[in-house]
Amino acid sequence: MKNILNCWAISLILLLAACANNPLGSYTSNMSPSLLALSNGNSTQAENKISGKNDLLYYLEHGTVLRLSDKYTQSNSDFSFAQQYIDQWAASFHNGNLGLAADTLEASLVNDKVIDYAAKDYEKVMLPTYKALNYMALGDIDSARIEITRMYNIEDIIHDYREAVYAKTQSDVENSNPKKNTSFATFEQVESINKGEYDFEALNSPQVLALKNSYQNSFSHYLAGFIFEALQEPSLARPGYVKALELNPGNKLIKQSIDNVDKASAANNNNMTDLLIIEEVGHAPQLKSVSFSVPFFTTSGQNKCSKLITISFPQLVFDAQNHSAADIGVDGQSLQPMLFTNFDLMASRYLHDNLPNIYLRNTLRAAKDLALQQSVCSEGGGIASLITTIGTKFLGTADERTWVTLPRQIYVTRIKMTRGKHNISVNVGGAFKQIRVNLTKSYAVLSLRIIGNSVYFSPEQNK
Amino acid sequence: MVKNKIIESKITKRLLIVGCLGSVLGCSMVNAPVVGSGKVSYGDANAVETVNTDFGSTDLNTVAQSMADDLIKTGALNQCKTYTVSPVKNKTDQYIDTENLTQSIKTRLMKSNLVTAKYVLSQSQMQNQTDELSRQNDSGLYKNPQKIGNMKAAECRLDGFVSNISKTNADMKDVFYQFNLSLIKVDEGVELWSNEKQIRKTQVK
Fold first, then answer.
1. Number of folded domains in chain A?
2. Considering only CB atoms, which chain A residues are within 8 Å of B177?
3. A463 lies in a domain?
4. Which residues from chain A sit within 8 angstroms of residue B96, using beta carbons?
5. Structural domain count, chain B
6. In which domain, by residue range, is A246 found?
7. Residue B55 lies in a domain
8. What CATH number does residue B105 fall under?
């Protein structure tokens, strides 16, 4: 037995050391150079700084950076690889395996980070949204339509999945304490004890709780409405705008768009272009593992003892540079884009909804670690005991993986202009960045992404 | 008498042969190899679908059948020589492609022997039509291009909308759909016929 445990411990350390793209390493540290390169205006360097292969998250990040470099076909190629992972997840769920929920046990025994990255709910929705935007930049609106239908179909799957996971979590909680003589503090107790060590308040703010859920965003549905409107399909454009308004109540631009669809006279004449300007600001929050102690109770006969165990939660680290939208100038006329989607809030809501489940997995893992350490110690201790202790400590950090090259916020404005060439500018950090666009069709989309003081226009035409 | 028996016997044999051939062919169709994991299968397109409370295939079939049958029964459509179908407005918060609904109603009307009115292309189908006419007339490739200016205008049009009311609580979700369709005389603006179909879908959580 001692040899087996020694073997296990040494293998674990060798495994971690051998991995070039260490799944247990800090994803935040890995991605920081890429984000820095983007904020310095160097998307090629940012592309090269993204490490890792054959991984969903790699394709998401790499595809996003390629999009910023105007490489839309290559970007969609990466996004298609990423989509395969999402499709596998959806197929797994449909086949009754409950997809990722079935991985809970596996993750609970080792660490969330050792299982393949499963995109967060809002990331699953943003993937087809970005593919649709890429196709719009390529002038292929029919393919954009396919992606946008995929967007709202995946929302339905996520909705069903969340209900199934909720049911499974309830059953996990009921079966989570096989040993009747041990118990952990409840999540609510942990929340009140560790207020100073973990920012629970950020996850419980009124803005976070006001979100309908963590996966539906107003921008994706507004884009759906716009694409269907451009394709002369008002019966599908209207629900796109209606859903966008449900998720972003009071937004005047969305209300106006619904009114326009309802009016038959809203059709464009041949000399005008309906231009949708999308302003993406900053990057999505990163995750940092934060560890703290929670009580763990054991009962021996009549005696009840408490110990402290260390658990780790992922904490959001928000973009420190970009906080809000910049005004956009169109031929000298100033436009103030309206906020549609805030990924700070969506990531917070995702954590808010998932933290109790993460805590459950942490406690299962902690119980297993304690049992393992005691077992190694009773088998003779020595080097194996030390390695096991280090190993379990190392494995005990929270999963920091998240799609960080998503924007922090998405703003939108829309204007009807005569066809032809126009100047569009944005004021970032006191400097004007400008693009010259040539509008030739009834509907057009222009995206601009601000990271640090750098601006990336898509498509980068007639600059 | 004997001759009749011989003829009868020949007919019986032929019928048997045809029957056997039919069976063999039928069997070969049934036993066609199936490629795949077995997790995907074909279902009855007319089966009742109750996956969730969203507007689904059963609702589409029910509405199209009910509306078209009622319109045919009243004979109102035959007051017009030509008719078209305007895009059905979707006033719900769901992504319902009402083009399917429109096409389904139109197909049922066209298949009926009781309808004498001719269907003419709708607004959404006109782009392809004008593109084809332009291509034939402008490209210089055709000897006898179809002439521009011969298209028939719709004397009447069908116009409709679908709307819904949703209510949800912790235990259930209830969605009420209402579909309205009217037949309108284009030149006069007179409504010749109108009908509505209501559907209630309830899902217990």
1. 1
2. none
3. no
4. 235-236, 239
5. 1
6. 2-458
7. no
8. 3.40.50
Q: Which two tokens stand for residue A133?
A: 């935007």
Contact (CB<8Å) B99/A152: no
Which residue in A149, A232, A235 is closest to B89 by CB distance? A235
Distances (CA, A) of A411 to A190, A426, B8, B76, B136: 37, 13, 84, 51, 46
Q: Which of B52, B94, B124 sits opposite A232 (nearest CB)?
A: B124
Structure tokens at B166: 């949703």
Interatomic CA distance for residues B193 and B182, integer angstroms:
6
Which site among B95, B125, B128 would you substitute to test the A interface, given the most A Cβ atoms closer than 10 Å to its Cβ?
Answer: B95
Asked if the structure places residue A115 within a domain, the reply is yes
Query: Which parts of A92-212 are beta strand (E)?
Result: 182-184
Question: Which residue is it, tokens 């402290």?
Answer: A308
Cβ–Cβ under 8 Å, residues B183 and B77: yes
The verdict on residue B157 lying in a domain is: yes
Dmax (CA) of chain A: 86
Alpha carbon distance A201, B33 (integer Å) = 60
In a domain, B5, yes or no: no
Q: Model-level pTM? A: 0.82
**ipTM > 0.90 for the complex:** no
pLDDT digits (tens, 9 = 90+) for A328-373: 999 989 999 999 999 999 999 999 998 888 887 777 777 776 666 6
Could you tell me which chain B residue has the CA closest to the CA of A149? B95
